[in-house]
Each structure stands twice: as C-alpha cells, then as structure tokens.
Amino acid sequence: MMANRRELLIGIGASVLAVSTGRFARAAAPGSWVLYVSAADCRVCRAWEVDHKDAFARGLQKNGIGFRTVTVSSLRDVREDAAWPANLKWVRDSYPNMKGTPWFFVISGRSIEMAANSTDMWRTKLLPLAA
Amino acid sequence: MRPVRNILRSLLCIAVLGAAASWAEAGEPNPQSVVDNVVFELSSTPDGLTACLSTRRGAKLSGPYGVAVTALSAPAAWDEALPKTVAVEDDYFTLPLRVDLKRRYGVTELGRVQFEVGACQPEGMCIPVELAVDTATIAPASHTIPCSG
C-alpha cells in the first residue's frame, strides 16, 4: 500500500515535470521571444539589468529565443503610449490591468505564452528558458 | 481634620489618574493605513498635516519616484503649491519618512489629499501605491514626535 502511494506520488511528480517541461519547450519554439518591460525609475529593474539581463539574453539567444525591451518613463504609467512601439502595443493591450514594473512576456507569434511581473517570477518561470 | 485630608487625598488621586489617562490617550499612535506594504500614518497638527511613511515585509520606497502629494479638493487651503513631489537621488528613501504639509493661515477645511509612492516589493517589483484621505477624519498628532525611527 505504502509502495503504491509512493509510486503514485512519483508518477504525479513526473507528470507535472513533463507538462512544465513541455510548456517551456513550446514557449521556446523557434520564433519565440521574450519582451522585458522596464521603467526609468524602477530600481528593481536597474538591479536586474545589472545582475542578470546580459546573461539571460545570451542564454535565450543560445536557445534560439529573441529578447526585446520596452522602457517607459516611469513605473507610474507602464502603459505609456509613446514608449510602446506600434507593433508591440497588442501585448500591452492584452493586459489591461498591467501595473508597475518589471514585466516579462514570453511571446510566440501573436500569442503570449507566459507572463511574469516580478523578478521572483522571472526566476521561476523564465530563467529556465535560458538554461 | 482627618475627613478633610481623606477628601484631599481622593481628589489628588482622581487628578493624577485623569492626567495619566489623558497622557496615555495622547500617546496612542495614530491610526495607520497599510496599502501594498506601505504604512501611512497621518496626523493633523496646528500647522497642517504630517504624514509618516514606512513599510512592512521589507518593501522599499523608490527615491527617484518620490512621494507625490496632491490636493483632490480645496488646493487653496494649503500654504504651498500642490501637487508637490519629494524625491531623492538615492535608490530608496530612508525610512520612516516624514512629510509635512502647511495649511494656509486661518483655513480650517483642508479637503481631501492623496499621497502616492513607488513601492518596491520584496518579490522584485515596483508598483505605484496611492492613498487618498479626507483630512477631516485625521486625528490630532499625539504629544510624542511622530515619525521617529
């Protein structure tokens, strides 16, 4: 009975891993790219850029994933129209409640595969894409 | 003689207890409002209004973002131009942060004011945090100096 429960747990764990790995693989499909949204007065963003940005972008590139950046004037208005290129406004418009910075989006074609709005979430959800 | 002395002693006790009670009441901290880990403690003073800002759970207040104070009504009631923003070049403010607003002489109705800060949360994100208050609901400052670390 005990062994069965253990096997069941192992099976569940393996399934979760397989699903999440598959999700990352899909997100990392050729043509995928990561959009990083920052603000000039976001000190958390500055620290992340100094400590992680270059290595992360290099890791993505190695895996065939692009990296783009949008920097708004202030985290007061992450939706600042002038800061968003016309061809990226659809990303912003997909998240009407977007507030503060940073934001990270994994994009494939015209769909957002994943979104993270903190460096903690970036670490758990996006960093594996650059491994 | 003894009854008189007892009455005097009772009066003295009542006076001492009354003074202690009023001191304790005045010493109570003013009510705090906590929004997204930012603690706003507001007190009315003879000169106007004092805001004491601090944080919880390791949140920090962005220095370049600053603290913006806006009069949502009766802007002429204040002896300074509003909106005003207090900002510093450092990454984050040293907390607690005290912001004083002076009211115009003779004005009693101060209306509503709004405070806005950039709060950087421990999970690694910075968000704008706002608090709007009706100054009529703010308690007078206690005798203790507000906003001491």
Explain what this protein looks like in three dimensions.
The complex is a heterodimer of chains A (131) and B (149). By secondary structure, chain A is an alpha+beta fold. Chain A has a single domain, classed as Glutaredoxin. Chain A contains four helices and four strands; from the N terminus they run H-E-H-E-H-E-E-H. Chain A has a four-stranded mixed sheet with strand order 2-1-3-4. Chain B has two domains: 29 residues; 107 residues, Immunoglobulin-like. In chain B, a hairpin with a 3-residue loop joins strand 8 and strand 9. Chain B has one helix and nine strands; from the N terminus they run αβββββββββ. By secondary structure, chain B is an alpha+beta fold.
Number of helices of chain B: 1
Q: How large a portion of the residues of chain B is in β-strands, by DSSP E?
A: 35-45%
CATH class of chain A: Alpha Beta
- In helices, the fraction of residues of chain A equals 40-55%
Radius of gyration of chain A: 17 Å
CATH architecture of chain A: 3-Layer(aba) Sandwich
Task: Provide the succession of SSEs of chain B.
Answer: HEEEEEEEEE
Task: Determine the mean pLDDT of chain A.
Answer: 85
The ordered string of helix (H) and strand (E) elements of chain A is: HEHEHEEH
Total of domains of chain A: 1
